[in-house]
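pls ignore typos typing on phone
zinc ion + seq
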Amino acid sequence: MEKMRMRGATLPGNSTVEMKDMEIPKPGHGQVLIQTKATTICGSDIRCIYREHVGKGPEGYIPGMVAGHEPCGVIVEEGEGLRRFKKGDRVIVYHISGCGVCNDCRRGYYISCKSRFRQAYGWQRNGGMAPYILAEEKDLIALPDELTYKDGAQVACGFGTVYEAIEKIGVCGNDAVLVTGLGPVGLAALMLAKAMGANMLIGVEMNDYRIGLAKELGLVDYVFKPDEAMEGIMKVTNGNGVERSIDASASDPGRQLAIRATREWGKIAFVGEGGTCSFTPSPDIIHGQKTIYGSWVTSLWRMEELVERLVRWGIHPEDLITDEFPIEKAGEAYALMAGGNCGKVAVVFD
Ligand SMILES: [Zn+2]
Ligand SMILES: [Zn+2]
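k done
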């Protein structure tokens, strides 16, 4: 019998997308075949794979792999030995398949697994930019009925990452929250901080499209361009600065601002990847009793907690999606995301 085939998007580098014809895989022991419903594009796809293959070694993109590490879909075929999930279940794929038995994996942080068995979807194994994706049952998060597949795709990486950072610094109704960099990750940070009751939301961004989007979505009380930001933030916080800040700009000035615009005893989280940060410890953090947290992706259990809370809060990550493409137009989707005049970009499937 002839095997069923499909076409998936691969990223050869040099800002190109190549469609690849392949067999639809059969799930083995402990695996499921998922019919992909939505896969969103991450900043890391652009920075580390699409423009050029940046990562080397075990964390590098393997040329020819189907891209897409933010997939969400429905199980259409069960492998043997499944313990929890079944055909028909709507699922998010945690985008790293960890070895499952190292200390990091046992904490749920597959992202931090250093085993040679670690594989990221869309990097070292086929990801979600294809009509079907082969996944390990242990990597799945159940998608509640109240959330859409597009909501789920965003949880798989971006919202999970932001939620982790926010839980580390803690955000509540006492807090003015500053977010530097209003790309999809920064907008997600504002959306979650708002749901947690932050009493003032401040954004800093230079791209006019993204400033407009943050306003349109009702995610900012104040938004400043970088050169006017410090003065503006001090003005709206009575000269004290914010209680919490999150850097999603990944830029040196954005990070410096996040540190200096945070008041005494405040907490700062860095989630934007790459680049450097220069600051002067004594005046910038030590004398102000401030804490800076680094935060990388999230754990399986926190992702489960996040989907539960999204339902309780009644918010939808898909609201950040500004542009959708079919898989045949994946090239346009990546090009738009690379240009930056967009919110979140999604590839959606029938
Ligand atoms: Zn990502
Ligand atoms: Zn591991």
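The radius of gyration is 20 Å. Residues 20 and 121 are 16 Å apart (CA to CA). more later
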